[in-house]
Amino acid sequence: MRVFVNQATLELVQGDITSERTDAIVNTANSALSGGGGVDGAIHRVGGTAIRQEIQSKYPDGCPRGEARLTGAGDLPCRYVIHAVGPIWNDFSAAQADALLASTYTASLRLARDYDLRSIAFPSISTGPYAFPVERAAAIALNTVVMFMEAHPQLELVRFVLFDIVTFAAYSDALKVLLSKYNSISLPLYYEKGTR
Fold this sequence. Notes:
By secondary structure, this protein is α/β, with parallel strands linked by helices. The protein has a single domain (2-191), classed as Leucine Aminopeptidase, subunit E, domain 1 (3-Layer(aba) Sandwich). It has helices spanning 38-47, 49-58, 94-114, 134-151, 165-184; strands at 2-5, 8-14, 24-28, 68-72, 80-84, 119-122, 157-162, 189-191. Strands 4-5-3-6-7-2-1-8 form an eight-stranded mixed beta sheet, sandwiched between helices. Helix 3 (94-114) runs parallel beside helix 4 (134-151) and helix 4 packs across helix 5. It starts with a strand and ends in a 5-residue tail after the last strand.
């Protein structure tokens, strides 16, 4: 699924984020930035030891929740990895978790802006082992990203690479809701012709 925000592209795809050739991919990291399971483990496996070495050198204290850190990509086909530390759903009130998740996406996008990147690929942050409800996470993620894209037009492509069909469906539904909301107030968010 593809929509446009001003002149930039926002895409939803089902796939493997480790094969993305965007300027940066986002890793769903733990606060120690030590690698783990799921997306985090896959990125560390495919990226090789260079990523871990750079993390240990630059970020020995890890990264707080709601923030992100950038490293090179090692053996991955992208240029950079943005390690984003999202909230664990059960550790916070719903309002706190929502705010931290939005902050995690914003921190990742700010790094992309600060490094003058044109394209970035996100997984669904915090919806795996961190148990953030996927429908709620999708709405927060997409709203945060669209607002950032409107304010920072240098981003040409934001792609959500979603691992399974359930997550892809939740993001597709959330994007349709967001699209109808934006169209009702005449903001420049629209489908590519013929892709509905």
